[in-house]
Amino acid sequence: MLKLSFERILFILLIFIPISIVMELTHSNPVFIFFTAALAIIPLAGFMGKATEELSKQVGAGLGGLLNATFGNATELIIAIFALQAGLFEVVKASITGGIIGNMLLIVGCSMLFGGLKREKQTFNPQVQGANSTMLALAAVGLIMPALVSHIFDFNTVETLSLGVSFILVITYIFSLLFSLRTHKHLYSCEEDPEECKPKWSKNKAIMVLLLTTAVIAMESEFLVGAVEPVSASLGLTELFIGVIVVAIIGNAAEHSTAILMAIKNKMDLSLGIAIGSSTQIALLIAPVLVFVSYIWGNPMTLVFNQFEVVAIIAAVVIANMICSDGESNWFEGVQLIALYAMMGVVFFLI
Amino acid sequence: MLKLSFERILFILLIFIPISIVMELTHSNPVFIFFTAALAIIPLAGFMGKATEELSKQVGAGLGGLLNATFGNATELIIAIFALQAGLFEVVKASITGGIIGNMLLIVGCSMLFGGLKREKQTFNPQVQGANSTMLALAAVGLIMPALVSHIFDFNTVETLSLGVSFILVITYIFSLLFSLRTHKHLYSCEEDPEECKPKWSKNKAIMVLLLTTAVIAMESEFLVGAVEPVSASLGLTELFIGVIVVAIIGNAAEHSTAILMAIKNKMDLSLGIAIGSSTQIALLIAPVLVFVSYIWGNPMTLVFNQFEVVAIIAAVVIANMICSDGESNWFEGVQLIALYAMMGVVFFLI
Amino acid sequence: MLKLSFERILFILLIFIPISIVMELTHSNPVFIFFTAALAIIPLAGFMGKATEELSKQVGAGLGGLLNATFGNATELIIAIFALQAGLFEVVKASITGGIIGNMLLIVGCSMLFGGLKREKQTFNPQVQGANSTMLALAAVGLIMPALVSHIFDFNTVETLSLGVSFILVITYIFSLLFSLRTHKHLYSCEEDPEECKPKWSKNKAIMVLLLTTAVIAMESEFLVGAVEPVSASLGLTELFIGVIVVAIIGNAAEHSTAILMAIKNKMDLSLGIAIGSSTQIALLIAPVLVFVSYIWGNPMTLVFNQFEVVAIIAAVVIANMICSDGESNWFEGVQLIALYAMMGVVFFLI
Predict the structure, then answer these.
(1) Nearest CB to C322 within list A137, A168, A172
(2) At B151, is the secondary structure helix, strand, or coil?
């Protein structure tokens, strides 16, 4: 019932695809373009996620896991690549920060809050979520390193450092796939509910939806990114705020809803797997890929996050680790994570 | 026997009430006024705590918990409000820092040390103390945020941020009361020893003592605060040192003794509940209330702590979390916390 | 078989003792002197460690533990004292940093990686390793304090602070010996394998080897330290890099190999005890002793680490704590620690 209405909302939101196209073609107010494109991306990302999931069920565990791992944050990557092309480096980096803290604080927080509302406590596998959040802590150290040296080093050294860190992060990510898909895959298997593992779409349908959504997301991302600067000017919001709060939420809205729905159904491992896994992937795969792409394009983006982003990432990682390390959650832990996100929001809004 | 002599010490210290009044009226050396007022506050805070406890036993669990939660750090609040009125913002903020690190390091440290001296180890509920120390970590992030942005923002923005953070902290505190007094109250109940839960004072006596001690503490706080500046000048101590080490200890001396006594009796949950709970309350309730009061008075105090306070708070929170997360303690963990407090003391003394 | 070939390698490396002496006497290229002295120190440190271990088995648990605790990092101490005498303060501090992060990240990482390769997971006593890594976190706070105040304080105050912190660290170290050798020695006993506890060398042999290796290490350290400046100039490496990466590894190479061998044999408590214990000892004993020695010599070295060292130490301590707190490890946790070390390596190389 809940699931059904959730999918229906996604279908209804598809109406924003034609609306955003009309807006773009008629050179409407960029604020309208920005928000209609954003609303259009939400269901597209949702169906892309669904298609990835369906496809991955049909190609064997190994390749399936790889598919999930690679397409998991495809929407964010597409938006970020268009922003990169437009030279909006601050927006790109802010959307990385926003993706990490949004997942670790807002989504994990909402999951623990809504999941814990009518329960004494919820439990999850601390080994799996602990591994994920430790990996994120490692990535956080890597991501903040260039910021720490940017005052003393020249640009070339910071660039080299960004490339070096990115390289190490990607290697670690590859090892993490080896860990979760091969040597310790039993920790991640969906034993609980075999129903969930059965494919519901045909392989061809899944591939078609995947290709189609990717194409439309790319188009909408171009609309969205093109409107960032005028929107930031006319609404008086900084590009940092748009990146951290707005862009980071859009790309993941559907996935986020799934994480919260899973928590309400008391499937905390699935829920945290989505949210923390998404953070980890942004830090260890998306961020490095963006550094590489910008380098290849000859206009290298370094990983120099600003001071607030650095503090936000460290705080999110450390506190989420404290909360996840015992394998138990309750609604108040959710409230705390949301409170931390709200504080970050105030800071990024005021800057 | 031990308890008896402890109460007797409190009674004896009451002698400093008339002494401090005479000192003040005869305009004696401010150093004498400062220390006699300080010594007078110790038993007053002790009896106020006792009265709160007795009253809270007789008004039902919900209201009782609320009373305890609100009056728990009343002495510190009264002292801080007088310091606020006198414009001693650095002393106020230093006493917030001192209250947090004093409880988390010195008091928890002494409890674990003395409690663990003749025992292999002591155990406590990691879920409860974990929740408390996570909440403190959250508050720590909020409290240090304004300091991080103070270099770039103008005063008004920092003030807005301080108000925003204070607001979020108070909301979180209210939710924590809902958690500990309603949805998860069984975690905090005094099941172990029903004897402890029986009232020993009549309701009227408790109310009388509460009103009387509040009034006298207010008077002594005025003496104390009035003497801070001359004392700091004549003893060559900074206001920071006086705030962090001296003021923070006075307001809580009686409560601190209780925490350590409970640890010696192997009631670690009660002991840690007092010490960590007190830290949490200072960070999530007292600090925000002081920001609101100063704002209403038209001379707003921002939450811009200095660099050493920021490091001290972070270090205290992280290390206390490491030590409390396993639900076990031994004397050496106590030594480590005290050693950390001693290092902080050296730094604050040297500044 | 593995053990045998390991000892054989040490014997073969002894050939570098005469080679380095010839190099030094013929005033060869400092790069050759540096590397032959370094290679000569590796087996010497190994045999010194063996001799300490054998001797400690024969003098009773208390004195034996003390011997192990004091001579455990003797090689590093000797090298550092020669560097101190030569005024190479940056190299000394860098070797402290390098010793801490090398043990916590590279050695613990390799142990968890190689030990976990063919195992689902390995387990260890979280109480013991937790105590060790908490102690290290405490020491880390102490070690970074002087760096935090160095911008505002004059040199004398920073010196006083360094002495104060060193004093507190040594006191804590002494209490830690009381804990591990007396009140909680059962946690650290070698119950598992009584074979390991039997002496294999005679007492006289052990004492002879101890004296001899100490003397030769001192000589080789003088060669090594004398060559640091020309080597750093001719290879284009900073003294920081040489200190953090090279010097820190040489002094501990043999001990490190033992830690990894123990992990491969699934004796994780022994393995982590060596690696984390070594870090702890560097932070709480070696660093303070070097501060005291420099002070007595009239040319005081302060504990002002540079920004990268501070971040490296904090990151190493926090992440190693996250990984060690659950009492379980797997190969991927090892990979993560090594990845973190590699990132640090890149930073220190680029500076």
Answers:
(1) A137
(2) coil
Q: What is the mean pLDDT of chain B?
A: 86
**Candidate CATH numbers 3.40.50.720, 3.30.230.70, 1.20.1420.30, 2.40.30.90; the one for domain A2-190+201-350:** 1.20.1420.30
The yes-or-no verdict on residue C328 having pLDDT over 90 is no
C330–chain B nearest CA distance, Å? 21
End-to-end CA distance of chain C: 42
Answer for the pair A70, A89: CB distance below 8 angstroms, yes or no: no
Closest C-alpha to A128, from A274, A335, A318: A274
Query: Could you tell me which residues of chain C have a Cβ less than 8 Å from any Cβ in chain A?
Result: 120, 307-308, 311, 315, 318-319, 322-323, 325-326, 328, 330-333, 335-336, 339-340, 342-343, 346-347, 350-351
Average pLDDT score over chain C: 86
What Rg value do the Cα atoms of chain B yield, rounded? Answer: 19
Q: Report the alpha-carbon distance of residue B77 to residue A343 in Å, rounded.
A: 24
- Express each pLDDT in B237-280 by its tens digit: 888 888 877 777 887 777 788 889 889 999 898 888 888 888 88
> Which residues of chain A neighbour B179 with C-beta distances below 8 Å?
330-332
Stretches where chain A sits below pLDDT 50 are 1, 191
Phi and psi at residue A122, in whole multiples of 5°? -120, 150
| CA–CA–CA angle B150, B152, B155 (5° rounding) | 55
Q: What's the CA gap between C158 and C146, in Å, rounded?
A: 6
Which residues have CB under 8 Å from C264's CB, separation 6+?
C2, C114, C115
Q: How far is C124 from chain A (nearest CA, A)?
A: 15
Please answer whether residues C213 and C40 qualify as being in contact, where contact means their C-beta atoms are separated by less than 8 angstroms: no
CA distances from B108 to A117, B129, B268, B335 (A): 32, 11, 10, 10
Of A323, A331, A343, the CB nearest to B168: A343
Q: What pLDDT, on the 0 to 100 scale, is given for residue C169?
A: 95
CB pairs A-B closer than 8 Å: 78
Indicate whether this complex's ipTM tops 0.90.
no
Cβ–Cβ < 8 Å for A34, A247:
no
CATH no. of B2-350: 1.20.1420.30
pLDDT digits (tens, 9 = 90+) for A221-254: 999 999 988 988 888 888 888 887 777 788 777 7
